[in-house]
């Protein structure tokens, strides 16, 4: 199918997923900034009604009046538990929700019109310039339509691991990172089979041509893979999609999924003015206010290195707040304020799981394996004693957690297999 045929018979869309109120502020700012830079392209917000509070859903409805946003309720997609496969290997507790991201492959049409090209964006992203030219273009169309059509486009993962995270495998070193070898911002690394890290993608951003065949392809693999194998994956949706689309994906520009750490890890390609989609990995900017050091440096993030990028988020939040205030959206603003750090800097328990505490869970790992009382395990299980002051660690209904349920959350819902 030609590009013109695709354009005339369907429409392009972005999509994101919201399963917890703790990500509400991120989704609102994603919708707001995407509408600023790509107003003609709708954002479809997939959300799970059983785990979102009614005020949070109402906030999304209110924002949809001002942004080109479509709300799309979906059921949770979770792995069933059993006595013999209850262990899992995910790096962060919040990743348990990411299986539901696969629901995006079920989105074939909206309001009776076919979705032609669909680009998923994680809810912890913000838009700084129109990403559509890098995503919805003839080159990507030609690739996605090639072969049997079961393909996608995404960016490479970053395996530099300069923070020396204990959960990362030994192969995660700068020389094995695809982004290390690019010469400048316009270079796009090739997808290679060797080393294996050169053939792995980050699924914060990915684009595909929706179809019933592609949907069956993805969910067929999900259904046929034993739960105990899926449960071992550190980054559930990302690791799974790398398995499904092994040799079936093409690389996008770094601009479409610019991890905040790349600003100081990959200066070879990063340019502030060229970022289209900024990905706030690990701790989220809305979880804590930016601080100033004694030497006048902005400080934010897990290691204090993200003051500038987190500051950009707060600048956009201030603009959004002022606009919605003038539009009389009092209830929307009151709800949003419950899920961002307070101005007085007081500790906010609702933000711990998406703030600095997001790394606590990952400390249970050593050399890519889970650790129990100083011993390595090869089965990907997370076990051992809870960290000091984290008595609720490991007591969640669907596996380890490191905090109490977020304000307005109703649990994680029932286990739902794809239909």
From TrEMBL:
A UniProt-annotated Pfam family: Glyco_transf_8
Domain of life: Eukaryota
Listed InterPro entries: Glyco_trans_8, GNT1/Glycosyltrans_8, Nucleotide-diphossugar_trans
A GO term, aspect molecular function: glycosyltransferase activity
Bias kind Basic and acidic residues: ranges: 369-378
SUPFAM superfamilies for this protein: Nucleotide-diphospho-sugar transferases (SSF53448)
Chain segments carrying region Disordered: 364-419
PANTHER family associated with the record: GLYCOGENIN SUBFAMILY MEMBER (PTHR11183)
Record protein name field: Nucleotide-diphospho-sugar transferase
Biological source species: Didymosphaeria variabile
């Amino acid at each position: 199918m030609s590009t013109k045929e695709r354009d005339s018979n369907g429409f392009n869309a972005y999509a994101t997923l919201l399963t917890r109120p703790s990500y509400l502020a991120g989704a609102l700012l994603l919708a707001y900034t995407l509408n600023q830079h790509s107003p003609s392209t709708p954002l479809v917000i997939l959300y799970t009604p059983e785990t979102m509070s009614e005020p949070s859903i109402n906030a999304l409805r209110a924002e949809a009046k001002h942004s080109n946003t479509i709300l799309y309720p979906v059921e949770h997609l979770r792995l069933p538990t059993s006595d013999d496969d209850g262990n899992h290997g995910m790096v962060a507790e919040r990743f348990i929700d990411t299986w539901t991201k696969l629901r995006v492959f079920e989105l074939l049409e909206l309001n009776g019109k076919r979705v032609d090209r669909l680009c998923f964006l994680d809810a912890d992203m913000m838009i700084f310039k129109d990403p559509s030219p890098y995503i919805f273009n003839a080159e990507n169309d030609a690739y996605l339509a090639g072969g049997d059509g079961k393909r996608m486009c995404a960016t490479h993962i970053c395996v530099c691991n300069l923070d020396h995270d204990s959960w990362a495998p030994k192969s995660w070193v700068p020389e094995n990172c695809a982004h290390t070898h690019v010469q400048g911002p316009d270079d796009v690394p090739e997808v290679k089979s060797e080393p294996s890290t050169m053939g792995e993608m980050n699924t914060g951003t990915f684009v595909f041509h929706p179809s019933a065949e592609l949907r069956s392809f993805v969910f067929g693999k999900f259904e046929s893979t034993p739960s105990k194998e899926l449960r071992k994956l550190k980054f559930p949706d990302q690791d799974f999609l790398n398995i499904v689309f092994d040799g079936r994906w093409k690389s996008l520009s770094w601009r479409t999924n610019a991890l905040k750490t790349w600003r100081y890890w990959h200066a070879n390609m990063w340019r502030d003015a060229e970022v289209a989609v900024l990905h706030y990995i690990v701790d989220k900017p809305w979880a804590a206010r930016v601080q100033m050091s004694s030497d006048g440096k902005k400080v934010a993030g897990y290691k204090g290195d993200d003051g500038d990028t987190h500051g950009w988020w707060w600048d956009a939040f201030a603009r959004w707040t002022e606009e919605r205030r003038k539009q009389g959206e009092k209830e929307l603003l009151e709800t949003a304020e419950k899920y961002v750090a307070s101005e007085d800097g007081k500790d906010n328990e609702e933000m711990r799981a998406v703030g600095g505490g997001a790394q606590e869970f990952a400390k249970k790992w050593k050399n890519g394996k889970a650790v129990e009382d100083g011993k390595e395990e090869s089965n990907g299980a997370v076990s051992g004693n809870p960290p000091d002051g984290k008595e609720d660690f490991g007591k969640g209904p669907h596996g380890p957690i490191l905090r109490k349920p977020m304000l307005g959350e109703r649990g994680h819902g029932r286990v739902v297999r794809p239909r």
